[in-house]
Amino acid sequence: MHIELSRRLASQGWSLQGSALSAPAQWVLYFGPTDALHDGAIARELHECHPQAIITGCSTGTTLLGADVADDEVCAAALRFDHTRIAAASAPLARAADSRGCGQHLGQALTAPDLALVVVLSQGSVVNGSELLAGLRDRLDGPGRAVPIVGGLAGDGGRFQTTLVGLGEHVAADQAVAIGLYGQRLQHAASAVGGWESFGPPRRVTGADGNVLRELDGRPALDLYERYLGEEAAGLPGTALLYPLRIWPPGQPELGVVRTVLAIDREARTMTFAGDLPQGWSAQLMRGHHEHLVDGAEAAARTAGQALACPPAKPTTGDTLALVVSCVGRRLLMGQRTCDEAEVTAAALPAGARAIGFYSYGELAPSVPGGACDLHNQTLAVTLIAESAG
């Protein structure tokens, strides 16, 4: 596999970050600010540069390229595979209720015996990420077979207004896109780590409808958040990013996942999260500290790298892509020190890995290499993609 990285400043146009591809790209992956992507001009520019490639991307408040983070740049990775076939599909996703059907449509379009990995980019405003994944598994998985899934939910920084996803020259706020990578020579590994700490008493989800949380311990969920946030409650849902909710099935805290808020309803006293909150599960508020988040980012990159090199994986040849998806909540908490997270992630990657990524409204990855994909919030997820020598 061969990778060409580039970035685009509005005032300067595109600039290469390294050498250019010596043959046409098959897949271009891009991320950038909502305002820069909304009219489709970026997608058209990339199509003109790489007319034979599948062009996919999504919006974000902050991009990652190598060890750099930026709020005003578009970044892109053009990829050329030696032994891997690429396909892509899109499906409409305008309401949370459409999430499972969207996943089923994408899975059906991509399923094949040699499908090795699926990369998902979904709009992040109203999607139920848990149901989107369930729909994909409905069509991709079978007896003794679970297709690995990674990716993320498009972001819009702390604005929570519009998120965009693009396939080809079509960029829209109401769709999800999935990219299928096919072949036995594809090598990949993924890991997701948070670094947040729990505080306050564990509570019980006593009222929930999918990803809409109504009650914790028999009381309105929004009341709990407002009590803990105090004056910061006026900034909901954005300020809730700093206080995510960890949930786990009864008696199994080791299976916990983190959920973050997408929207609130002050009249109904409910909160809408990026994924399901099953009734009867335990829940506990979380908060972050800079050092712990940075340590989590380093652990995610290191763990993925170790898994990529661990037998029975074969030695890789050519470039290695590192797709880094971090949560907007981490960005808001760390502020200008977000560069620390990007730098330790880049330093912990395998030698020569080329990193690109974005800050999302939800991360799709296994918690540990080889595990089942889940929707995470407030984590940093690293997916390494390469090809084997033989």
Fill in the keyword field for this structure.
390 residues, alpha+beta, 2 domains, 7-stranded mixed β-sheet, globular, FIST_C, FIST_domain_N, FIST N domain protein
What does this structure look like?
By secondary structure, the protein is an alpha+beta fold. It folds into 2 domains: 2-193 and 291-388, no CATH class; 197-287, no CATH class. The chain contains 8 helices and 28 strands. Strands 15, 16, 17, 18, 19, 20, 21, 22 and 23 form a 9-stranded antiparallel sheet that branches. A 7-stranded mixed sheet has the order 2-1-7-3-4-11-12. Strand 17 and strand 18 (219-220) form a beta hairpin. 55% of the residues are buried. This is FIST N domain protein. InterPro entries: FIST_C, FIST_domain_N. Residues 23-220 form the FIST domain.
Instruction: State which percent range the strand residues make up.
Output: 35-45%
- Unreliable stretches (pLDDT < 50, length at least 5) are none
How many H/I helical runs? 8
Dominant shape:
globular
Number of domains: 2
Q: How is the biggest beta sheet arranged?
A: 9 strands, antiparallel
Summary of the model, kept short:
The chain folds into 2 domains: 2-193 and 291-388, no CATH class; 197-287, no CATH class. The protein contains 8 helices and 28 strands.
Topology:
Elements: E1 2-9, E2 13-16, E3 27-32, H1 34-37, H2 41-49, E4 54-59, E5 63-65, E6 68-70, E7 73-80, E8 85-92, H3 99-110, E9 115-122, H4 129-140, E10 149-153, E11 165-167, E12 170-172, E13 175-182, E14 186-193, E15 197-198, E16 203-209, E17 212-216, E18 219-220, H5 221-229, E19 245-248, E20 257-259, E21 261-265, E22 270-273, E23 282-287, H6 290-309, E24 316-327, H7 328-334, H8 338-348, E25 353-360, E26 362-366, E27 373-376, E28 380-388
Parallel strand pairs: 3-4, 9-10, 24-25
Antiparallel strand pairs: 1-2, 1-7, 3-7, 4-11, 5-6, 5-25, 8-13, 9-13, 10-26, 11-12, 14-28, 15-23, 16-17, 16-23, 17-18, 17-22, 19-20, 19-23, 21-22, 24-28, 26-27
Helix pairs in contact: 3-4, 6-8
